[in-house]
């Protein structure tokens, strides 16, 4: 984001509508805000150009698609300078949906989706087989209590 970019109240309201439903038509947002659809289009384009908005995403229930086994996997590397090589290999594993570079006990932290425990074991073995991975530690997700990407934005904009 450009340092001199300013988000005004109109931009904040647009972001709040899009955070709830990324597919909400600009005409509907415009109607709710009592402005023109062109205004919404220009504002969203400006926020995309400055990097405030980085694409859109779907919230997929992988459990309904047969991938209800979720685990976090900590990955310890032989050396920190091997991180990019390992990330490139992890990116090729479709069950690995999120990978973060972290500090602490591990170098990387991954979220994986699998069909069941056996499938998860096979995914973890694939991670273990990557060159420069020393070891992994897995934590099974029993239940996701909440996953609310809007909480921080609501706190920032409603204070």
Tell me about this structure.
It is a single chain. With 159 residues, the protein is α+β, with helices and mostly antiparallel strands. It has 2 domains: 9-57, Winged helix-like DNA-binding domain superfamily/Winged helix DNA-binding domain (Arc Repressor Mutant, subunit A); 62-140, Alpha-Beta Plaits. Helix content is 38%, strand content 19%. The chain has helices at residues 9-20, 26-33, 37-49, 83-90, 117-128, 151-157; strands spanning 69-77, 96-101, 108-114, 133-140. A 4-stranded antiparallel sheet has the order 2-3-1-4. A hairpin with a 6-residue loop joins strand 2 and strand 3 (108-114). The radius of gyration is 20 Å and the shape is elongated. The chain starts with 8 loop residues before the first helix and ends with a helix.
SSE layout:
Elements: H1 9-20, H2 26-33, H3 37-49, E1 69-77, H4 83-90, E2 96-101, E3 108-114, H5 117-128, E4 133-140, H6 151-157
Helix pairs in contact: 1-3, 2-3
> Quick one: CATH class of the largest domain?
Alpha Beta
Fourth-level CATH superfamily of the largest domain: Lrp/AsnC effector binding domain/regulation of amino acid metabolism (RAM) domain
Q: What's the overall average pLDDT, rounded?
A: 91
Radius of gyration: 20 Å
Major beta-sheet overview: 4 strands, antiparallel
What's the CATH topology label of the largest domain?
A: Alpha-Beta Plaits
Helix count equals 6
By secondary-structure content and strand pairing, the structural class works out as alpha+beta
Shape: elongated
Q: How are the strands of the biggest sheet laid out side by side?
A: 2-3-1-4
Helix content: 25-40%
Number of domains: 2
Beta-strand content estimate: 15-25%
Distance between the termini: 22 Å
The strand count comes to 4
Report the CATH architecture of the largest domain. 2-Layer Sandwich
Poorly predicted runs are: none
Please provide the ordered H/E string of secondary-structure elements: HHHEHEEHEH
